[in-house]
Amino acid sequence: MPMTTLEQKVCLVCGASSETMVLEPCPVCGKWFCKDCSFKQTGRRFCSPGCARDFFWGIGEEEDEDDTQEREPEY
Ligand SMILES: [Zn+2]
Ligand SMILES: [Zn+2]
């Protein structure tokens, strides 16, 4: 293999690969998302409104680390 394919980056929402779309890592959860699926807030982009909320509410306080599944924002 000429190129390393350790991690195939795909958008977690639509599944677009980094070869066809520009993907960005979520600053909160580290998942990759494409521009079409990004959630924009105050100049930053997140994978979801929930991550945007977590980011602005402050990271570092790991209170609930047991949510392995996607959390849906309740608003
Ligand atoms: Zn996408
Ligand atoms: Zn995220």
Quick structural overview:
This protein has one helix spanning 49-57, and strands at residues 23-25, 32-34, 39-41, 44-46.
What percentage of amino acids are in beta strands? 15-25%
Catalogue the ligands: zinc ion
- Computed Rg: 14 Å
Based on Cα principal axes, name the global outline: elongated
Q: Write the H/E string, N to C.
A: EEEEH
Distance between the termini: 46 Å
The overall pLDDT, averaged over residues, is 82
Secondary structure: helix percent: 10-25%
**Widest sheet: strand ordering:** 1-2
Which regions are unreliable across 5 or more consecutive residues at pLDDT < 50? Answer: none
Number of strands: 4
Q: Treating each run of at least 4 consecutive H or I residues as one helix, how many helices?
A: 1
Derived structural class:
alpha+beta
Largest sheet: 2 strands, antiparallel
Descriptive terms for the model:
binds zinc ion; two-stranded antiparallel ribbon; about 15% strand; about 80 residues; single chain; alpha+beta
Descriptive notes:
This protein has 75 residues and is of the alpha+beta class. The chain has a domain at 9-56. Helices cover 12% and strands 16% of the residues. The chain has one helix at residues 49-57; strands at 23-25, 32-34, 39-41, 44-46. The strands form two sheets. The protein has a two-stranded antiparallel ribbon. The chain has a two-stranded antiparallel sheet with strand order 3-4. It starts with 22 loop residues before the first strand and ends in an 18-residue tail after the last helix. The model has no long low-confidence stretch (mean pLDDT 82). The structure holds zinc ion (2 copies).
